[in-house]
Amino acid sequence: MTRRVSIFGATGSIGQNTLDLIRRDPEAYRVVALTGGRNISALARAAREFQAEIAITAFDECHEPLRAALEGSGVETAAGAAAVTEAASRPASWIMSAIVGAAGLAPGLKALEQGTTLALANKESLVTAGPLMLATAKTHGATILPVDSEHSAIFQALRGESMETVERVIITASGGAFRDWPFERLQAATPEEASNHPNWAMGQRITIDSASMFNKALEVIETREFFGVAPDQIEVLIHPESLVHALVGFRDGGIMAHVGPHDMRHAIGYALSYPTRPDLALDRLDLAAIGQLNFSAPDLMRYPALGLAYEVMAMRGLAGAAFNGAKEAALDGFLAGRLRFTDMACVVGDVIENMSGDRLGNAAITLESVREADQVARRRAEESMSLKQE
Ligand code: NAD
Ligand code: MG
Fold first, then answer.
1. 328 lines ligand 1 (CB under 6 A)
2. How far, in Å, from the CA of 73 to the mean position of ligand 2?
3. For strand 76-79 and strand 94-97, is the pairing parallel, antiparallel, or unpaired?
4. Whether residue 103 has its Cβ less than 6 Å from ligand 1
5. 312-367, pLDDT tens digit by residue?
6. Domains, in order of start, for the chain
7. Which of these, 79, 105, 107, 106, lies nearest to 6 by C-alpha position?
8. Which ligand neighbours the alpha carbon of 176 most closely?
9. Global pTM?
10. What atom of ligand 1 comes closest to residue 124's alpha carbon?
């Protein structure tokens, strides 16, 4: 039987890896919606290749080029954020959420409302609105499967185990592009230098977030939200080889570690075939050739974003939305050359401290309140950046 699948963020790194897996077994899938941003040629190419029902660009001004590129293909087109979200209500039994940033939340929620299986790569959804995501899934009988490699690893290590027996969850971090740089050099780091991940090929924003460990901060919060473990049960371990993706420690002292190559198609394929394990012709690990795996504790001076994650978890409520909004604004500032690499965490820390008086922790989490907190945080981050520039 063919399965109807949609991919949100089809032109990105996760989206393309997902299409690669679907391409290996084309008879098994019917591609419903593919969405993208400004890379119209990639979106149109994928839509033609997979004969998607509809291709949607998130940006109105890109509609005309998309329409032109898909002329005569029989693929419907649409544009704008609302059209992207609307496409998530097209019936599909598996939907990949791989838009980058807070823009991924609304389509993900809409997908859950149709009771589908949502493969969640967009980490911002759980960070900004974890309780809302889980409640929406529960109400509509939908399933959320983690795609972020650490969370897929935890999910796999927990299979067949009871959460009461879990003592701690450890997620690993490569240390990012600057892990071997002297601390003093960090403040002069450029976006180009931060965009070179030592182990993975990913989108630019997540790659820079890996260098600053804002990515790991998001993942810590994501772990708290998805698995319901307490903040003090979540640990981060620097592991430069990035082959052990996460470990779960149980009350009997045993630890289950998930080990695998640097290839997101493993986690995507796991989510695509769940609950069965797929046959995946991907590279196999040769541990003898690798020889050794290294681990060390993260230095919070070097990676202040990690400390912020624990502050955000203590606040709860809309603190995650504010944290992510401020982080996205600070990242934009860094990319635009307005902010030094090391100032991103200062700006985000300022915003969080600033907003802690706004009763973020007590607010109800709705799509609207999350948007509002995100917008306020971006504005405050702008103010903080302007002050830093003076
Ligand atoms: P990417 O930058 O390569 O792709 C992002 C996708 O989102 C593209 O299709 C782009 O067109 C689309 N997009 C961008 N802005 C948009 C907007 N405003 N509205 C709608 N669509 C928009 O990113 P990626 O590396 O594929 O990451 C996607 C998500 O998955 C992120 O949340 C990231 O943190 C998460 N993730 C990625 C990896 C990875 O290995 N790449 C691993 C774990 C988690
Ligand atoms: Mg990850």
1. no
2. 36
3. unpaired
4. yes
5. 999 999 999 999 999 999 999 999 999 999 999 999 999 999 888 777 777 899 99
6. 3-146 (3.40.50.720), 157-259+289-307 (no CATH), 316-390 (1.10.1740.10)
7. 107
8. 2
9. 0.96
10. 32
